[in-house]
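In this supplementary section we document a worked example of the pipeline. Step one takes a protein sequence of length 174 as its only input; no multiple sequence alignment statistics are reported here. Step two produces a three-dimensional model, which step three serialises into C-alpha cells for compact storage. The input and output of this example are shown verbatim.
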Amino acid sequence: MSTISKKICLFGDFGVGKTSLIRQFVECKFSDEYLSTVGVKISRKLVSFSKKGISSEQSLQLIIWDIEGSNKFKAVAQNYFQGSKGAVIVGDVTQPETLNHLQEHIQTFLTVNPQSYIIVALNKSDMIAGEYLENIRKMYQFSNQINVLDTYITSAKTGNNVNEIFQSLANRLI
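The serialised model returned by step three reads:
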C-alpha cells in the first residue's frame, strides 16, 4: 500500500469552529470547551481510497493546517498557505458576518494557490433550525468558481458532513 501526503489549510474567521471540525475528523471527538488557536496547529489523518483500475488500496495522508482566524493574523496567514493543495474555508451559520467573508477568504487563498481546490463548510448547523439551512447553503454556493468543489452544511458537534468535507477534498487531490 502506498501513501501520498498533501497539505490542506483550514481557515475562516475567529470562532467559526475550525479546530472543532479537525478534532471531530481526526479524533472523532467534540468538546464545548473553547480553545483559541494561536498561529497554526498541524494535524494528520490517513484517508484510504481505491482508484479505478488499480487493485491495491492506497492512502492519502492529509496534513491539515489549522490557521488562526483573528484579523491581526491575516497578513501572516498567507505565508502558511504556501504549498497547500486544498483548503476548507469555514463560516458559522449563526454568525452571518462570517459567511459574508467567505468570498474574501476564497480569493485570498487562490492568490497564493491558484491551482488548488476549496471546500466551503457552513459550520454549527446543529444550532439553527433545519428549514433555514438549505437556503443558507444556496446563498453561499460558489459553484461558479472552478476551484470551489462544493458547499457543505456541517456540525463539528454532531459530526454532520465532517468526514464528507475532508473525503471530498481528498478524492479531488488524488
